[in-house]
Amino acid sequence: MFLVVLQRSGPQWDASRPLEEQSDWTAHAAFMDGLVEAGFVVLGGPLVDEHRVVHVVEAESEDAVRDTLARDPWSETHLHIHTIDRWTIRLDGRRVQR
């Protein structure tokens, strides 16, 4: 099942610094890259305001998403989960041959 996760910046997020200059960036980036390699994160990244992040994940349940993201070095410090919603995909342009 696909789920859409909206995260918001946490108490240690420094709005005066770009994403790559936040504390513990290297550990967070390595963790997220691992989730992509494992097939857990399908799509993801910050929204334009850089205070919100959206990830499309493939997981068995909301609890599985929470358990996985709790291991992120930025969990509850730089990012916290705001919402998790199931996503029913009815259109998928990746499968259209052009």
3D structure, described in words:
There is one protein chain. The protein has 98 residues and is α+β, with helices and mostly antiparallel strands. The chain has a single domain (2-91), classed as Alpha-Beta Plaits (2-Layer Sandwich), CATH 3.30.70.1060. Helices cover 21% and strands 31% of the residues. The chain is built from two helices and four strands, in the order βαββαβ. It has helices at 25-37, 62-69; strands at residues 2-9, 41-46, 52-58, 79-87. The chain has a four-stranded antiparallel beta sheet with strand order 2-3-1-4. The longest helix is centred in the N-terminal third of the chain and has 13 residues, at 25-37.
The helix/strand class is alpha+beta
Low-confidence stretches: none
Radius of gyration: 14 Å
How many structural domains in the coordinates?
A: 1
Compile the SSE list and pairings:
Elements: E1 2-9, H1 25-37, E2 41-46, E3 52-58, H2 62-69, E4 79-87
Antiparallel strand pairs: 1-3, 1-4, 2-3
Quick recap:
With 98 residues, the protein is α+β, with helices and mostly antiparallel strands. The protein has two helices and four strands.
Question: Which terms summarize this structure?
Answer:
about 20% helix, single chain, alpha+beta, four-stranded antiparallel β-sheet, Alpha-Beta Plaits, about 100 residues
